[in-house]
Amino acid sequence: MSPHSWARPLYRIGQVVGTLAVITIALLTAADVVLRYFFNAAIFGAAEVANALLAVLVGAGLIIVAAQRLHICVDLFDAPLRRRLPKLYPRWIFGAELLGTAALATLLVQHAMHTIDFGELTPVLEFPIGWVFALVALLVIMALAVLLSGWRDEKMHQGEEK
Amino acid sequence: ETKLLFNVFVPPGHFMHEVLKGWAQDVEKVTESRVDIEFAAGSLAPPPQQLQGVASGVFDVAFAINPTIKSKAPLLEVSSLPWLVSDAEAASVAAWRIYEKHFASRNQFPDVHLLSVFNFSGGQLYSTTDTPINSLDELKSRKMWALYGESADLLKNLGISPITSPAVQVSESVSRGVVNGYFGLILESVIDFKTAPYTKSITLFPLGVTSSGFSMFINKRKWGSISEADRNAIMKLSGEALAQRVGKASKAASAAALSQLKADGIQVIEADPQFYAELERAATPSYEQFERTAEKAGLDGKAVLADFRKEYDALAK
Amino acid sequence: MTAALIGFAILIALSFTGMPLAFATLLTGFVGFGLMRDWDSAVAMSGQQIGEMIVNPNLVVVPIFILMGELIRRGGIADELYEFGNALVGRLRGGLAMSTVLACGAFSTVCGSSVATAATMTKVAMPPMRRYGYHDSLSAGTVAAGGTLGILIPPSIPMVIYCIFAREDIGRMFIAGIVPGALMMTAFMVTIALWARLRPGVAPVGAAMSWTQRIAAFKKTWAFVVLFLVVLGGIYLGVFTATEAASVGAIGAYLFALARGSMRSGREYLDVIGGAVGISAAIFAIASCALVFSQFINVTGMPFALMELVNGWELSGIQLVLAIGALCILLGMVFEALGILVLIVPMFLPTLQAQGVDMIWFGVVVIILIELGLITPPVGVNVFTVKAARPDLKLGDVFAGVTPFVLAMLVTAALILIWPEIVVGLPNLMR
Ligand code: NA
Ligand code: NA
Fold first, then answer.
1. What are the extents of the domains in chain A?
2. Residue B1: CB partners within 8 Å, gap ≥ 6?
3. Which residues of A touch B166 (CB under 8 A)?
4. Mutation for A interface: C54, C248, C292, most A CBs within 10 A
């Protein structure tokens, strides 16, 4: 993403939240092992907290994916398409990413609302998991904003090699 | 004609597939094919989201394990209480009768119609070391996995902190040797979830530590689109009839599993009476909890339990 | 059946337009399901599947293993592995290339990705091979092929994803990859030896080392040995679950990186760890959208139809596996690892399970064929990775260089098809 983009703070949030989530998962899991082996006392529900953090990590990661355009693509026809359709092709890719991210956000909002409504609880800690999905949905909406902020860059660079 | 999509979340090869296929064929027969039931080729939703899947119409018919719908139907916990049942057939029929008599009028499911409730056999205790677990001291010395719900709660009441998860994840802990005992699985799950090769002995209880209870339901809109005569015909095949069908199949599966496990060289012992009595005492909080739940719903929990025991005892003979 | 095949064709066509694989899969799966049932249920189902995937307890290992791989790349462990490999086989004709294979294999035991393995080993192994006059074809081919070991030798991200779909035990699957991984390393070394014998010009003879030098080189690999013991030893001996091994391993890798002067600024944390988080999210996007697609396949009834077909033709399990293998090789020309898993596994899994095929064994076969796809033209991700790390290489040279290794992989796959014990022997011993 461009260094002056208005969405830069959102990108930073994605990096920080994602980094904290993955560090916490690793430390929590390792601590659980140590406690279990040396003190025969597992951290109750540690795995469930790690699961919830995984969801947060994916949401935050999608912001990074949006900013760095990290989606995995089949680029077999990338070069010829870029040559033949210098305007249309980059816009198509950008539009597809925009649409896909928007779809993910919508589906997650829906799913979060359903799950909260339904009162679904995690099996061990009996935590309402819907709120975790709501947080992930928020992060994916931020990813959408980060992607949108690249629209102007995309127009400027269209037709050029990435 | 009404087409119904039936989702079965248990893995292929589980006895429930056969039972439910038989039920579906009977439904098609009595409705003269006005109701046509198709099965999804693989489970369309994870186990905890069966009710949600039916309510939102992802599929039309499904069954769910009761703890996953606890927030909607806490009273169904009754048939899963510790040291209450072991015979799946008697437990299933009793659970349906108690449901009809005490719970049905409380209309717990707004978006779905309940077709039946049923139970599997009672959960047992397993050791993966050469020493069987048959005393409280031995149990307390172990690193344990417990089926989440009643089995895990019971160990917590005894001051043991188990690793706990749904049954499908038991192998992750057992096969790695992360634990050296596990608690609450029924005998056929030991084979289905691949923990048999690591298991050295089984401690059988007179009544199971818990018996997984299930509910089966159909989407309300779809149910309404079926004629009343056909609905009545379907309910005749469901309810108590289906409960008995499932219970019988679970009983047969447990018996088959027990002989296979024995043939595999796994030692099978009866629980020591003193050990069992101590475990029974540890279940008191679960019963108190159920009585509170019943009270909240305007029911006398003790009376419901007494009713349940009476039905079960008569059936289990 | 028809609906599923149309969906399959549309998915391939969409992905050829350059649309991100995740979104092509989501779109096809969502629309297909909506048409088979109705739109409300498509929305509910898709949300449920995606939600389930991102809180799946078995997938917690994915970001942790990716992080561990990134930290290890910072710690310079790959250089030491290469030196030790060189101390062992460097004096043979083609010895530096063989050392590269050994180092790739060793690095694969702590890294779950083929691309990361290839990228790391290109930087480590290409310069010395050039210095000693190795032909670019041989050296680049070795690194590109050696890098594919990253997903066969545990840990392996595609194996984790496969296990989610196949409902198999990840620890068991990991252990199942060890012997085939060693076999493939051997096949690669034999390939290099034959090549160097037939065309002595491509690979000169190296200098012999004394035993003291060898021992010194081995001592330097202690950081790797520690991590190796923690991760694989921990899983194998049953001390850890895969997630726990990954967590302890990642903390270990972090300490090594720290001790070697890396990870000293806040920015580096965000770049390295944030980078791992980004890669993980891209993987989760594909995996969860694949789940949506597989639910569409489930309602088309295709697995049932396929089962009838298999029964009607009286195909045996092995014939079915061979047919799927051929399809994998075709798809591998264009799709990378996850793409193949996404396309193949949901289509054939129920049928294979019904045929009683050992799904761990099948998984390893699929992983090997996916590895093949990583180095076959026109799209060979590992070949591109080597080229990207060494832009002066000619793409044609690299593709020519991987050809003998493609044969070696096919031989390995054939051996595994003939003797399944190569795969299932070790996990069965674990009991
Ligand atoms: Na690996
Ligand atoms: Na390829």
1. 3-156
2. B33, B34, B35, B36
3. 123
4. C54
CB contact under 8 A, A124 and B163: no
What is the distance in angstroms between the Cα of C294 and the nearest Cα belonging to chain B?
Answer: 9
Residue C2 inside a domain? The answer is: no
Q: Note down the domain range covering C420.
A: 19-429
Query: Is B166–A123 a contact, with Cβ atoms under 8 angstroms apart?
Result: yes
Chain B residue closest in CA terms to A123: B148
Position C14 in a domain? no
Q: Which residue of B has its CA nearest to C427?
A: B175
Q: What is the pLDDT of residues B64-113, one digit of tens each?
A: 999 888 888 889 999 999 999 999 999 999 999 999 999 988 767 878 99
Distance C56 CA to ligand 1 centre (A): 21
| Closest CA in chain A for residue C248 | A30
Domain count, chain C: 1
Ligand nearest to the CA of C339: 2
pTM (2 decimals)?
0.82
The DSSP call for residue C59 is G
Ligand approaching nearest to the C-alpha of C246 = 1
**Sign of the dihedral defined by the CA atoms of residues C15, C17, C23, C24, in that order:** negative
Would you state the torsion angle of the CA atoms of residues C236, C237, C239, C240, taken in this order, to the nearest 10 degrees? 0
Q: Greatest CA span in chain A, whole angstroms?
A: 66
Tell me the pLDDT of chain C averaged across its residues.
86
Interval A72-130: pLDDT, tens: 777 777 788 888 988 888 888 899 999 999 999 999 999 999 889 877 778 777 888 99
CA angle C72, C76, C79 (to 5 degrees): 120
Radius of gyration of chain A (CA): 20
Torsion of CA A45, A50, A54, A57, to 10 degrees: 130
- B260 Cβ under 8 Å from any chain A Cβ: no
Q: Is residue C6 part of a domain?
A: no
Q: Minimal CA–CA distance to C410: which of C356, C317, C332, C319?
A: C332
A72-100: buried (b, 16+ CB within 10 Å) or exposed (e) per residue? bbbbbbbeebbeeeeeebbeebbebbbeb
State the distance from the centre of ligand 2 to the C-alpha of C332, rounded, in angstroms: 5
Chains that touch C (3 or more CB pairs under 8 A): A, B
User: Pick from A29, A89, A108: which is nearest to C243 by CB?
Assistant: A29
**In angstroms, rounded to a whole number, what is the distance separating the alpha carbons of residues C304 and B40?**
9
Q: What are the start-end ranges of the H helices in C313-420?
A: 317-334, 337-354, 359-375, 381-389, 395-418
pLDDT tens-digit map of B143-191? 999 998 899 999 999 999 888 877 877 887 887 778 899 999 999 999 8
Give ipTM to 2 decimals.
0.81
Asked if B47 reaches chain A (Cβ–Cβ under 8 Å), the answer is no
Query: How many angstroms separate the CA atoms of C64 and C277, rounded?
Result: 9
Query: How remote is the C-alpha of C349 from its chain's centroid?
Result: 20
Residue C94's pLDDT is what? 85
A36, A40, A120: residue with CB nearest B48: A120
Residue C373 corresponds to which amino acid? G
Other Cβ atoms within 10 Å of B139 Cβ, number: 21
- Chain B touched by C431 (CB under 8 Å): yes
Query: A124 and B166: CB-CB below 8 Å?
Result: no
Q: What is the pLDDT of residue A154?
A: 61
The ligand whose atoms approach the alpha carbon of C340 most closely is 2
* Per-residue pLDDT at A152: 67
Q: Which residues contact residue B181 at a Cβ distance below 8 angstroms, ignoring those fewer than 6 apart?
A: B125, B126, B127, B128, B129, B133, B139, B142, B143, B144, B145
Ligand closest to Cα of C402 equals: 2
Residues whose CB is under 5 A from ligand 1 (ion)?
C 108, 112, 150, 153, 156
How many angstroms separate the CA of residue B180 from the nearest CA in chain C? 11
CA torsion, points A13, A15, A16, A21, in degrees to nearest 10? 120
Strand pairing category for B125-127 and B163-165: unpaired
Q: Would C69 be classed as within a structural domain? A: yes
